[in-house]
Amino acid sequence: MSDRFAVLQLDDLPTRRCSCGTTRRGFIAESDGQASVHLLQVRDAVTHHHRVATEYYIVLAGEGEIELDGVRHPARPMSAFLIKPGCRHRAIGDLTVLLVSLPAADDTDEYFDD
């Protein structure tokens, strides 16, 4: 590793459960928490929002929908979604998503409706 760049193989990272399914998160430490990149497999997603993070979803494979503030939008390969803080969202369907989070993913910045 260099102090000027980092390289990783997303599909080699460990899988962990998240509110949208399972994810493999990278570059959190390498970016000093400024950003993270995730390989997300959608499964049983729960509506949630973030108070700080902005997320970019880029659909790599599959068909489904992204629900943003209660409105469902079709999602297919190369669909992209910008999700700003406060937007309640979830992914629906059989989707593989490249997710970029600014700042980096932080489980304490995840809020669910009661």
TrEMBL record:
Coiled coil: none annotated. InterPro entries: Cupin_2, RmlC-like_jellyroll, RmlC_Cupin_sf. Residues 45-92 form the Cupin type-2 domain. It comes from the Bacteria. This is Cupin domain-containing protein. It comes from Micromonospora tarensis.
